[in-house]
Every structure is written in C-alpha cells, then in structure tokens.
Amino acid sequence: MGRREQNVGGTMKKKTMKLCCPPSPKNEGRGLKVKDQDRALAALAKALGHPARVKILRHLANVEACICGDLVLEVGLAQATVSQHLKVLKTAGLIRGTISGPATCYCVERSAFGRLQAWLGDLRKKP
After folding, report:
1. Residue 28 counted as domain residue
2. pTM of the model
3. Which residues touch 96 (CB under 8 Å, ≥6 apart)?
C-alpha cells in the first residue's frame, strides 16, 4: 500500500492508496547484443535528458504510485507539460501507467533501472 497526501477542506491528509502497478517481469532486456544494448541505453539516456523528467522519476521512485495531478503539484509545471514528460518516460520504459478510474496511476518500472545500471556498468568493459 502506498501513501499519498490529499487536500481535504484546506488541509493535507494522508490517504492510503492501493498499489496500482503490478511487479514487472524479471530479466527483461538482459541478453541483448552489445549493439542493441547501446541503442536501448541511448534511448533511456535521451528520456532522462530533461530535468523535469528526472524530478518526476525521483518522485515516483520515492512513492509507491502517483497520479498525474499529484505530479503536477510536485513538479510545478502545467498538467499538459507533465503529461508529455510522462509519455516520454513511459515510451522509454522507465515508468508504467495503469488506468485507475478517471486517472492514470504511474509508477517506476524497477526492471528498467536494473537494466540501466547494468548497461552503465558495461560501459567500462571492452567490447
């Protein structure tokens, strides 16, 4: 269960929310050829190439799940701008979104961070 703050009558109250993103498959992206890994790493790096996306990812990594409206408050950008950044992150496979009623609930794709860490470590190895 995740916790989120909700504005109720002018005061922020903690609300428990159901985890909306199921666990991701393990070893996804492992065993790729070096050339394919390079392309995948470049795509992830491109998605991380904007400070607002990094801020969104940092926030999502610290909470279990979050809806776009909460991210708008956290990042301080317009809803349409946050939605566009979420689309880039989702396309890159760094986050997942699950439709939950009228909103989409976003969470970090933990396996993507594992791949990113492994591929960055591989940069030190000779091809």
Report:
1. no
2. 0.71
3. 21, 24, 90, 106, 107, 109
